[in-house]
Amino acid sequence: TYVVTESCIQCKYTDCVDVCPVDAFREGANFLVIDPDECIDCTLCVAECPVEAIFAEDDVPAGQEHFTPLNAELAKLWKPIIERKDALPEADEWAKVESKFDKLQR
Ligand code: SF4
Ligand code: F3S
């Protein structure tokens, strides 16, 4: 499966959503996750994300491994998002911030 990681937090550009053939994305207030039960490993979403937040499960950067179980957990709680929408208002500023896990709204 593919996994959304820290870069997405407070940005939520949503370009990824439009290309997913199985509508695997789930939306929270300031983050998206991929439902591992839906993702078919097509890889299409990876190149779409302007902040490179999406990785194959086996390639999640060191220190961000916890995002794999987090995607699975939140996918059960959050609703599908199937169309692109505007990014969060301060997305371009937050895109430059590396550590923002404490901002994640569940
Ligand atoms: Fe959807 Fe493909 Fe990305 Fe999986 S890898 S979330 S199937 S676009
Ligand atoms: Fe997030 Fe990147 Fe998608 S910022 S919403 S994973 S395009």
UniProtKB/TrEMBL annotation:
Pfam families: DUF3470, Fer4_10
Presence of the UniProt keyword Protein biosynthesis in the record: no
SUPFAM superfamilies: 4Fe-4S ferredoxins
Keyword NAD: no
Superkingdom per UniProt: Bacteria
A molecular-function term among this protein's GO annotations: 4 iron, 4 sulfur cluster binding
Cofactor: [3Fe-4S] cluster; [4Fe-4S] cluster
PANTHER family: FERREDOXIN, OXIDOREDUCTASE
Chain's role: Ferredoxins are iron-sulfur proteins that transfer electrons in a wide variety of metabolic reactions.
Protein name, entry field: Ferredoxin
Species of provenance: Sterolibacterium denitrificans
Lineage of origin: Bacteria, Pseudomonadati, Pseudomonadota, Betaproteobacteria, Nitrosomonadales
